[in-house]
Write a structure and sequence with these properties.
Residues 13-98 form the Peptidase S26 domain. By secondary structure, the chain is of the alpha+beta class. It has helices at 2-26, 145-148, 172-184, 186-219, and strands at residues 32-34, 49-53, 73-74, 77-78, 81-84, 94-102, 133-137, 159-167. Helices cover 34% and strands 17% of the residues.
């Protein structure tokens, strides 16, 4: 029984170990983000899993906007893609790209892309900039977050991590777990996921044993 339990727990332990190693290198926890919307398509799609790092982590130190000279390419375009969560916004963390930094009191529309603005500074609640921070946007969206009212000017302390790479479709499990927690609560979801994992592990063990028996039967002596 102990061997069977260890066999069932080994995959989960391996996943946790990998996550801890990635977190140690990246300096962020959790080191993975599951994408829940299509606002960063086509480079990042709903259900993708994104590896993130701390904003000051070597060798990716600092935050670089899309409009800055020499901006590195991140997830299909120029500039850093960051995870941020404005306080009192009532939304989940947002994964969007930095356009450029702004200073308190600045009319930042003067150096913005007109195609991503809905009016001039007088028409936008986040203009002039109420604080030092960043203007952001989703690659698939038609406006800056601050023009569309998705987010205020983003303070640097609201940014928890920045994205490095994405893996297609590996985030669906996390999306499903989050949805289960939101609908059923943490404990019922944990019990359900644990039960499903145990069932899958048990089925796999039975299947492997059956295949082994069939193999032994074929290789055994014939009368």
């Amino acid at each position: 029984m102990n061997r069977k339990a260890a066999g069932l727990l080994a995959p989960a332990a391996a996943v946790l170990l990998v996550a801890l190693v990635v977190a140690a290198v990246a300096g962020a926890w959790p080191p993975f983000v599951a994408v829940e919307s299509g606002s960063m398509e086509p480079a990042v799609e709903r259900g993708d899993l994104v590896v993130v790092t701390a904003t000051d982590r070597f060798p990716w130190g600092g935050l670089v906007g899309h409009a800055e000279p020499g901006a590195p390419t991140r997830l299909g375009d120029r500039g850093d893609v960051v995870v941020f969560e404005p306080p009192d916004a009532g939304t989940r963390p947002i994964l969007h790209r930095i356009a450029f930094p702004v200073s308190a009191g600045e009319d930042w529309t003067d150096r913005a892309d007109p195609a991503l603005l809905d009016g001039d500074c007088d028409d936008i609640a986040a203009c002039p900039a109420p604080r030092d921070g960043y203007v952001t946007y989703g690659d698939a969206n038609g406006e800056y977050d601050q023009s569309a009212g998705i987010a205020p000017v983003v303070r640097e302390e609201w940014i928890s991590a920045k994205a490095l790479v994405s893996a297609p479709d590996l985030g669906w499990f996390r999306v499903g777990v989050d949805a289960g927690i939101a609908r059923l609560g943490l404990l019922p979801t944990a019990v359900g996921v644990g039960g499903a994992a145990a069932l899958a592990g048990g089925f796999g063990a039975v299947l492997i044993g059956l295949i082994g028996r069939i193999g032994r039967g074929r290789d055994g002596p014939r009368e």
